[in-house]
Amino acid sequence: MSRLRRLALLPALCVLALPVLVLLARALPVRAADLPEAPARNTVTMLDLGAKSCIPCKMMIPVLSALEKDYVGRAAILFIDVWENPEQGKKYGLRAIPTQIFYDRQGKETFRHEGFMDQQAIAAVLDKLLAQ
């Protein structure tokens, strides 16, 4: 095949390769540097471990957003997607998602909940930890 003919095929190969590149980009894990530090240092922390695609996890999104606003400067509200970062599920010993893990200021795990947890229940745990 002549060099000119090979160059003419290049755009078609790029079009064919694009979906593969998109799939590879989605499959690449988030680098450890991009994950939040959990528990946060010297701060009461609530870590939500879930996935952006699971239904109960999606229900947690507005709860977490509201808690981030309510507890700004007082507690760290963190989220890790364990479908994108499966090693994190093993690290935290997950059995189900979503799972919320609460830490005191010293970084000690004080409470763990599996499944959807409403804003009032989370706030009660955070307020108890903040009062200590």
TrEMBL record:
Entries under InterPro entries matching the protein: Thioredoxin-like_sf, Thioredoxin_domain
Pfam families: Thioredoxin
Entry GO terms, CC: cytosol
Superkingdom as given in the UniProt entry: Bacteria
Coiled-coil regions listed in the entry: none
GO biological process: cell redox homeostasis
Gene Ontology MF annotations: protein-disulfide reductase activity
Occurrences of domain Thioredoxin (ranges): 4-131
Protein name: Thioredoxin
Source organism of the structure: Fundidesulfovibrio magnetotacticus
